[in-house]
Amino acid sequence: MTVSAVEQQRVASAPVRTRRRGGGSSHGERPSKLGVAVVSVFMIGVLVYFMLPVYWLVVASTKTASDLFSTPGLWFSEMNLWGNLSRLSTYDGGIFWRWMFNSFIYSGVGSVLMTFVSVISGYALAVYRFRGRALVVGAVMGSMLVPQTVLAQPTYQLLVEIGLNNTYAGVLIPSLVYPFGVMLGFIYARSSIPTEILEAARLDGASEWRIFLSIGSRLMGTGTVTILLFAFIGSWNNFMLPLLVLNDQSLMPVTVGLNGWSQASITVPELQTLTVVGALVSIVPVVLVFLGLQRYWRSGLAAGGVRF
Amino acid sequence: MSAATASTASRTRPRRRLRGGGGGGERTAPYVFLAPFVLLFIGFLVVPIGLAIWNSLHTVRRSGLGFGSASETVFTGLSNYTEALTDAEFLAGLGRVLLYGVVQVPVMLALALTLALLFDSAAVRFKRFLQLSVFLPYAVPAVVAALLWGFLYQPQVSPVVDVLRSLGADPDFLAPGTVLWSIANVTVWSVTGVNMIIIFSALQTVPRDIYEAARIDGAGEFRTALRIKIPMVAPAIILTALFSVIGTLQLFNEPMVMRSVTSNVSSEYTPNMMIFSTTTQGGNINLGSAMAILLGLVTFALSVAVSVASNRRGGKR
C-alpha cells in the first residue's frame, strides 16, 4: 500500500515534463524495447530512492506529534501543517525565524561576495600574464586538497585572537575563502573571453576595471551564476565552523539550530515535530534558488565541462 | 602643484594608448583584482595552517594545582604526533573512514556514471525531470539530509522499516555494525546528483561524430559507452573521485547529526569528530592540531595517489 502511494506520487508528478527533448535519440539509433523497459524500471527505482525522503518530509510535516509515530509514514493523516508552522514560529520566542534570517545573511551576503571574489580572481588569472600567476594558480589548486578540519580549529583560535568569535563576521569572513569558486571562475574566463576583444577595448582607451565590468564579467555571466549557486548551497550547508565559532543561539544559522533541536528532542519530545517542520522550511529557499537557476547551472556546468 | 594638475589632466583626457600600449594599467590590474582573494587566502588559509603547525609542536604545561596555577606553553617537538598516532580511538576512526571510503566512493561514482551515461543515451524518458530529481538532494544541507534519513532509520517512525518488516525482514539501520553504512547511504543520496551532472556535462561536450563512427563500425550502445564514452570523460570521473575521497576523510556533519538518533556513534567516531571533541570538550588544542595535520597529510597522500594512479591508466591508452 505504501509503495503504491509512491507510485501515485510518481505518476502524478511525471507528466509535468511529458514533452520529450528533441535531442532524445542522440545517436540516431533506436534503443531496443527490452532495453527501454529495463532502463525504465531502473529509473523508477532511482526516482523513488532520491525523492522518497523529501516526500516523507513533506508528509511528516503535516502530522501531529502523535500521528508522526502512529500513522503510516508515507500517507497523510489529519492535516496539521498550519498548527505545526505556528508552533514553529512561536517556540522559544520565534528563534527559528531568527536562524533562517541568519542563514540568509550568511549565505546571501556570503555567496555574493564569494562569487565576486571568485569571478574577478578567475578573470585576472585567465586574462593577464604576470609575475606570480603560476604561484596563485598552484595555491588555488593545492588548497582544494586542504581538509576543512585543518582550518576550522585554528581559524576559531584566530577569531578569538582578533575578537570576532561569536559574531556574524566571524562566520562570514572565513567562508569567503573559496578556492573552488576561483578555479571555476578561471575555467569560465578562459573559455569565454577572447583576448582580441580586450585588446580592442584597450585601444579604445577603456581602463582595465571598466573592461572587466562591461566586457569580462558580462561574458562570464552563465559561469557567474553557476558559481553563485555552488557558493550559496555551500554556505547554506556550513556547519562545523559556526558550531565552533558561535555560542549565542541568536546568531546561529538554521543548520546548527536544527541540529541542536534534534539533540535536545531526546529529552523534549515536542522538538521532534518541530525539527521535522523546521527541516522542511529550511530547505525551501535552497530548493527555490536551485530550481530558479536551473537554466544557468545546466549550461554553466557544460561550459565548465570543457576543461574538467 | 603643476605636477598635480598634469596628472589630473591626463586622467580626464581620453586616453589613447598614452602609456605605451596601455602597459601601466595592464601591469598593475591583475594584482589589484587578485588582492581580495590573496588577502583572504593568507588570512584564513595560510595563517591558520601555520597556526595549526605551531600548535601541534607545542604543549601547554600546567605548573601547580588549583585556580591560581600558571600554565606555560613549551615546545615539545613531535610528541603530540606520537600521542595521536598511538591513540587507539584516533586510529580506529581513521580506519573507519578509510573503510567507508573504499565502499562509498566506488558505489556512488558507479551510480553517478551509470546515470550520466543513461541520461546521455536515448533510453531514458522524462530526462529533465529525472535529472532534477537526482540532483535535488544536493541542495539539501548535509545536516538536514542526516536528520531526514535519521527519521527514516528509526523503527518508530520509519515507513522503510515498516515496508521491510512486512516483507519479513527485520532491519536495524542503527546497530553498531550497520550505522556506518547508513551514514554512507546519506552521503550517496546527497552527492550522487552533483557528480552525475559533472560527468554528464563532460559527456555532452564529446563530439557526436565519434559515436557515428563507432556505430558505422558496428559498435552497440553498450560498447560505445564502455570503449568510447567512459575514456573520453575520464578526466571528469577522476575529478569527482578526487573530491569524493577528500570528502570521505572529512566526514563530520552526518555522523554528528546521527548522534541524536543512536548511541552507536561515539563523539570520536571519525577523525574529524575526534579533532572537534579533543579541542572543544577536551580543551587540548595542541593534540587536536596534530590530529588535524595528520588528517591533512593522509588526505593529501590519497589525493596524490588517486591522480598518479589515474595518470598511469590514462598513459596506457
UniProtKB/TrEMBL annotation, chain B:
Topology in the lipid bilayer is annotated as: Multi-pass membrane protein
Q: Where is the composition biased (Low complexity)?
A: 1-11
Enumerate the spans annotated as ABC transmembrane type-1 domain. Answer: 94-306
Q: Which GO terms describe its biological process?
A: transmembrane transport
Q: Which SUPFAM superfamilies match?
A: MetI-like
Annotated keywords: Cell membrane, Membrane, Transmembrane, Transmembrane helix, Transport
The Gene Ontology CC terms held by the record are: plasma membrane
Q: Where in the cell is it found?
A: Cell membrane
Q: Which PROSITE patterns does the UniProt entry name for this protein?
A: ABC_TM1
Q: This protein's superkingdom?
A: Bacteria
Q: Does the keyword Cytoplasm apply?
A: no
Q: Where are the transmembrane segments?
A: 31-54, 97-118, 130-153, 173-200, 232-252, 287-309
Q: Which residues form the signal peptide?
A: none
Q: Where is this region: Disordered?
A: 1-24
Q: What InterPro entries does UniProt report for this protein, alphabetically?
A: MetI-like, MetI-like_sf, UgpAE/MalFG_permease
The record's listing under Pfam families reads: BPD_transp_1
Give the record's family classification: Belongs to the binding-protein-dependent transport system permease family.
Name the record gives this protein: Sugar ABC transporter permease
Instruction: Give the organism the record lists.
Output: Phytoactinopolyspora halotolerans
